[in-house]
Amino acid sequence: MSRCHPKRILAFSLTLLLFLILAVPVFAWTPKPVADDPLLRMPGTQPDQGVTLEAPGRCLNCHSGYNASVEPGFNWKGSMMAQAARDPIFWACMTVAAQDSIWALGNPNAVDLCERCHFPEGWLGGRSDPPNASAMTQSDYDGLHCDFCHKLSDPFFETTQDGSREGSDWSGYWDEQTPLSSTEADRTYTQDAGEAGNIKLFTPGNFFINNRPKYSRYGENGSGQYFVSADNAKRASFADAGAKHQMLYSRYHKSKYFCSTCHDVSNPALANLGLSGLADLSGGTDLISEQYSAFNYFHVERTFSEFMLSAYGRQGGAATNPEFQDQGAPDIATAAKCQDCHMRDVSGPAANKNSAVDRPAGSNEHPASGLPLHDLTGGNSWITRILASLDPTGPVYDPRNVEILNQGPAALTLDLSQGVSPTGEGAALKAGSDRALQQLQLAATIKDLTYDSASGTLSFKVQNNSGHKLISGFPEGRRMFLNVKAFKGGSLLAEINPYSDTAGTLKGLSHPSSPALGSGESHDDALVYEVHPSSTLTGEEQTFHFVLATGRSKDNRIPPKGFDIVNAAERHSEPVWHGVIDPDYFSSAEYAGGYDQVDLTIPAGADQVTVNLYYQGTSREYIEFLRDEINGTGGTLTLNGQGQNPAGGTETYVVQSDPFFTQLKAWGNAIWDLWEHNHGLDSSGVTVPGIVPTIMASAAWGGAPPCDPPVPTLLSAEPGHTNVALAWTDLHTTDNQVLGYNLYYDQAGKSQLVAEVGQIATYTDSGLTNGQSYCYKLTSRYADCESTMSNILCATPTNQSGGTTIGAASLVSGVYEPSGKGKNRTTVFVQQQSFQLGDAIILRAHVIDQASGAPVADAVVEFTVSGPETATVTSTPSYTDGYAEGTWSTSAPNRKGNGGTPPGSYTATVSNVTLSGATWDGLTVSTSFSLQ
User: Fold this and answer.
1) Buried b or exposed e, range 478-489, using 16+ CB within 10 angstroms
2) pLDDT of residue 25
3) Could you tell me if 236 and 172 are in contact, meaning their C-beta atoms sit under 8 angstroms apart?
4) How high does pLDDT run on average in the chain?
5) Which pLDDT score is estimated for 26?
6) Whole-prediction pTM value?
7) Which of 57, 59, 37, 54 shows the shortest CA–CA distance to 46?
8) Shortest CA distance to 728 belongs to which of 759, 772, 752, 753?
9) In angstroms, what CA-CA distances link 703 with 247, 486, 491, 785?
10) pLDDT at residue 91 is higher than 80
11) What is the mean pLDDT of residues 904-921?
12) What contacts 750, CB < 8 A, 6 or more positions away?
């Protein structure tokens, strides 16, 4: 037996120790497990409770690919809900928040507050720690996706069930017409009551006592305090749904309180530090965040609170403004919950199955409730637009945006290959961006404009048509401003709030990037509607550090109709002017009517006055803040006289040097490059609405009439086999200014672009699904503007041949694996969604007769595979049981690591089904899988 010399042992030990030291990141701060951190703890389902969520690919199999104008899948994919984890502003803001958290709390754990709403699947799966999103993967990147939303449960199930929370008008407000709804609601109640015991306080103890939250001051579960069922049943708002999967009828999903979950945001870390001023109702045993609703402390966002303080938030709701209806919401005469405007009712089924109810006409149980359009848009149009530009086959491809955002996880953590990748969803994302712009144009009206040319007195109202403040949501960098111009003889006399397109910001601001005002120009801060947080931690009267914000220095946003200013203080929602809470900033008439009365004096003698209300989703000032804070040149994080930060450490700007930020530190330059390019400041000529201010509302006095193209009439919509032939009045022959027409799907007032056509008066919309209804409208185009919408005509394509219609009822991926032993040994198909490079992936579709539902033999299915690589796969003929299988053979890299199929997230889609004497129904069923 040989022995090692002691010196060799010592040398080896030192080498091993050095290796271990070098292999483990060394932080200047001390990490603390998020699960053990009471500052971040909030009520709800926790990561250790075993809730697992299905990837959206499973849901898109049935709920997508059959009618883009109304289906849930296409519209969800274009929303910020689906893209919450891919939002570049989120990534840059999260990076700053982590640095701020180290400075203020001694660790980056405040980022957990960001991840819980932007990565809910990953958060529930325990992947929010380390709090830099480095552990997030696959469908975590699909943000607020199908299974997350449709497993949310009502923490106030007891009072919802007895009618004391949101009313007991079961047949009216809840649209329940038979005992079926109450029977199904009882079943959901039983499930909720059974799961309530799993919800615990941070210290030992139950959150629920007798099926109600322990503390009566806890009346809303805002700020991301979600309660998620561990049961696999999908929850939604219809008791009579014909789903093939398990389901529970959920009143919660059509309740106004559902949206409060993520849209009333507060900072629990500061509250749990004891800085809120709220009384501890527990005697020191429980957290402030467990005792009070989040709206009681530290304002970040207050969209739901603003709604609850409005006339619309009171039980029964309120009539919407006539202007709101005229501007694109003709069927929304009353609003009582968020979904009325952000998930408006449309006509159609929610799935591609014959059992899906065609709402509202096909429902006896809920005859007043249409299919909720998964619109899910607010005013954020530019993020979905730039994500759409990542799709090389999409409508707005931009290789510069690809270069900036597709640097890979080693540089940005963001992995565009994960989940339902935007690189293949350009059409859906562009449609979502367009819907957001339409939402902005619904939100405001400038009315009652008068001008006295003798005195120069100008008066008008800016009317808020929304159910919350105008504007609302994430406050940093978001603003709305009035631009007023006075002309005489075509010459500009004066301009209020001029915007510099070359600098990318308003003129006359104190910020160094803001150009000086010119002759006749002025800046009026009261006409810039925005929130400026403040921070006693940084000593800033106005701050962009949202996790360090302790108050507001400015909040002059326009209140919604019927705003209850008396009760606004409890929700930290009063106006603030020059750092002072000012309930009298608006008059009682303005609160009641939901408007801002503007009275100005401009030069007398003008012959034309224009007033434009602009929206800018992200300002230059905020982007520069993010860039500079990440790059370490911000200067707002300082040390006290003893050389310490608020946490007692010495850290200030650490992103560029701390290994914790290795995969985040490139966001400083990336976010600036992205904004600069899409504002056109790099001489690219790109001008993305939302980065470049976009007009929400306009009014004028005097001068030439506005651009006003004639409105066409849609004459016919004739259905064919998977197509609709359209014809309209020819306006271009008699009006040479008409350059063409824009054809749209109608979405109950909203519009989804079908095609831009030239000087023709016919168009055939092809590639449609037989049996689905499509509704159309159109406009005419001048060079600088578009007409108002035409009339609407609907048509339903049908199988004109009279033969059999076949289609794929489902599509799954998997492999064949051996089963059994000896002479009983065989291979069986095993469904699978995660594969290794080199695997032969089986794509398996079930082909059926759409009329009878019977399996179809001898059909051939064509699959399209999209992702980091594209491929086309053709199946063998389907068996007698209807299953058709095709194989996509992937390849592994060589020994040097070169070549092979690119790893990442892929989607396989049925692109055709053929059989002699039969017609494919056109339903493009999909499934998603990953390749590693």
Assistant:
1) bbbbbbbbbbbe
2) 54
3) no
4) 94
5) 59
6) 0.90
7) 37
8) 759
9) 60, 10, 12, 18
10) yes
11) 90
12) 328, 344, 373, 375, 435, 438
All structural domains of the chain, each given as residue ranges with its CATH number in brackets, are 56-62+146-263+265-301+338-378 (no CATH), 83-143+382-417+633-665 (no CATH), 445-618 (no CATH), 707-795 (2.60.40.10), 804-931 (2.60.40.1930)
Contact 332, 343 (CB under 8 A): no
User: Which residue do the tokens 């305090």 mark?
Assistant: 225
Helix, strand or coil for residue 927? Answer: strand
CB 463 within 8 A of CB 598: no
Q: What is the C-alpha to C-alpha distance for residues 253 and 338, in angstroms, rounded to an integer?
A: 11
d(CA 479, CA 691): 11
CA distance 524 to 482: 9
- The tens digit of pLDDT for each residue in 639-663 reads 999 999 999 999 999 999 999 999 9
- 3-state helix, strand, coil split of the chain in percent (to 5) is 25, 25, 50
pLDDT band at 804 (very low <50, low <70, confident <90, very high): confident
Q: Which two tokens stand for residue 768?
A: 């449609």
Name the pLDDT band for 22 (thresholds 50, 70, 90): very low
Residue 17 has pLDDT above 90, yes or no: no
- SS3 call for 542: coil
SS3 (DSSP) at 282: coil
Nearest to 446 by CA among 457, 433, 435, 460: 460
Residue 2 has pLDDT above 60, yes or no: no
Q: Give the pLDDT of residue 158.
A: 98
Please tell me what DSSP assigns to residue 535.
B
Distance between CA atoms of residues 377 and 442, nearest Å? 12
